[in-house]
Write a structure and sequence with these properties.
homodimer; 348 residues; alpha/beta; TIM Barrel; two-stranded antiparallel ribbon; globular
Amino acid sequence: MTVLQTEKPLLRVLAGESVRPLPFWLMRQAGRYLPEYRAVRKQTKDFLSLCLTPDLATEVTLQPIRRYHPDAAILFADILLIPFGMGQKLAFVEGEGPVLEPIRRSEDLGKLDVSRVDEVLAPVMQTVRNLRRELPADVALIGFAGAPWTVATYMVEGGSSRNFEHTKAWAYGDENGFRQLMEKLVDSTSHYLLAQIEAGAEVIQLFDTWAGALPEFAFRRFCIEPTRRIVSRVRARYPHVPIMGFPRGAGMMLADYISETGVDGVSLDPFVPAHWAAEWLQPTCILQGNLDPMMLVTGGQAMQAEIERILGALGGSRYIFNLGHGILPQTPPEHVAELAEIVRSWRG
Amino acid sequence: MTVLQTEKPLLRVLAGESVRPLPFWLMRQAGRYLPEYRAVRKQTKDFLSLCLTPDLATEVTLQPIRRYHPDAAILFADILLIPFGMGQKLAFVEGEGPVLEPIRRSEDLGKLDVSRVDEVLAPVMQTVRNLRRELPADVALIGFAGAPWTVATYMVEGGSSRNFEHTKAWAYGDENGFRQLMEKLVDSTSHYLLAQIEAGAEVIQLFDTWAGALPEFAFRRFCIEPTRRIVSRVRARYPHVPIMGFPRGAGMMLADYISETGVDGVSLDPFVPAHWAAEWLQPTCILQGNLDPMMLVTGGQAMQAEIERILGALGGSRYIFNLGHGILPQTPPEHVAELAEIVRSWRG
C-alpha cells in the first residue's frame, strides 16, 4: 500500500497527503471528442459491444492517458451494464441514447436476475486486468458503477428522461415495490464493484447523475440509503479502497450525503460554489471536480480564470482537479491539453 | 393598501402577516392539465395568439380560479413575449416547443428593438386590466416575466436546450458582447413589468428557470446582477409592489440571491430542503413553493404526507404554498382539488 501511495499522486491525495502538482483526471476523458475514439467506435457494431470487448475497451481507456497523461484512468464501461447484466433488454440507438424495455411494476421484477451479472459482465473484469497491466506506474485505475437511483431511472423510463415521471410515480406511489428494485440494484452493484476491485480497480466511483431530481425525503431514501449500503458492503471486504460519490445536483444535501453514506469523497458538479465546499465539505472528505464542461469547450482566458478560481478555493489539499460533469463531444482536444498544463503548473 | 391587505390573504402574507388558512397558488395553474384550457387552446391558431388575445388569455387565467379558488391568479403569458416584442422571430411548434431565429453574436443585436415592446405587448396589458376587473375580491393578481439569463438561453439557442452550449460559449467567450444582450433584456423586462403594474398587477414574479445551470461566478454575473437591476428599477417606481424571484436550481446560492437582488421573496424548487430554507432564508424573506410537481401527479397518501412535511417546516409565517415548478400536463385535475383541501384545512 505504501509503495502504491508514493507512486500514484491520485492515491496519495486520497490518502490525505498534500501533493504537487495537483492530480487531475476528467470525467468521460475517453470519449467522442477524441478522433482516435471515434475511429475505434466506428469499427464496433454498437456502443454495448465496445464496452464488452476487453481489447477495445482497454484501448479507448488508454487513449486519453497517452495524450494527456492524467493521474487516473477510468474504466471504459457504462452504468447501464448492470440492468443489461440482470437481463433487461438494452440497446444504444445512434443519436437517441439508450433504449431499454421498461420495468415499471413489482410484477416485472422477476425478469431481473442478479445471478447472471457475473457471467455477462466478465469481459469488464478482463478490461480491468488489462488496464492494470498496461497503465503507466503513476496512473491510478478507477472502477465505477451507476448509483441505484440513477440506474433505476433508465430502467423504469426505458431510457433518458426529463421529469422521471414513471420512476417517481412508482417510487412515490408504491414505495415498497420500488424498494425491491433498489434492493436488486444494491445487490448487483455491490457485487460488480467488488469484482472490479478484485480485478485491479484501485478507486471506486458511484455516479448518481440524477440525484438532483429528488426532493429531500426521496433523496434520503433513494440516493443516500442505497449508496450507504453499497459503500458498507464494499468497505467490509476492501476497507482501504477509496470510494467517491457523485450525487450530481445534490446541493446543500452534500454534507448529509457524505456523513451518512460513508464515502471518502465526492465529485462536485459545476453548481456547487467552490468556497462553500471548501468550508463545509473539505474538512472531512476529499473533493473532486467543479469545472463547468462548457468552459472546456470555450477554452482561452475564461477557462484559465475559472480553473484558477477553483484551484484557489479548493487546491490546498484533499482535492483532485476534474470537471463537474463529463467532457462534451464538441470539446476541442487541444483545450484539454491546455487544462492539463494549467493544473500541472499551478503551485498555489 | 390596508383595505387590499385585509381582503387578499396572499398580499397579507407578503406584507408579513401570519394568515390562516395559508394562501396558495400553483405555477402553471392555467394549463394543459385542464380540459377547459385544452378546449380554448384548440380554437386558437397557436400558443402565441392565445397569449396575445386578451379575451382568451383572460379566460384561461380565470379557469383554475373558478375550479379551485386559489389565492392568486397569474397572468397567462409567456416569458418569450419579450424577445418576440423586441422583434426576434418566434414560433411555438406543436410538440416541439418554442423555435426562435437564434441570436449568437454582438453583430446580431441590432435586430432587437426595445422600443417595439410597448406596442407589440399592449394586448398583455389589456389582459391584466380585464383580470383586475373580473377576479374575485380576495384573489391577488401576479404579473411576471422571465429573468434575463433564462430568456437569453432561448434567444441564443433558438429554443430549449440541454447544455446551453451556444449561450455559455457566448457568455464565457465574449462576455462584453453577451452583456449587451443582457442589457437589452434588463431594459425591456423592467419596462414590461412596470407596464403590468400600471395595468393592475399586484405582485411580480421573475422566473429564472435555468439559473441552476450556472457555476457561481456566472450565477453572480448573469442571474443575480441583471435581476438586481430589474428589481431596483421596478422598486424605484412602485416601492410597495412585492417582487418574488425564482432562480430555479440555485441551491445554496439562494441566500446571496435574496440579499443581493433585493427581492421580497423566492420560490423554492423541490430540491431545496424545506428545513434548510426555514432556517437560512425565511427569517429575512417570504418563501413560496417546494412541492415536487410529480407528487401532484401521484396524489394520494404520498402527496398528503409530503405537503404536510413542507407545511410543518415552512408554514409558520412568511410562506405561500405552491409547487416547486409548473403543473405537469398529465396531472389529474382532482389531485389539485385534494391539494387545495389539504392546504386550506391545515392549521399547524
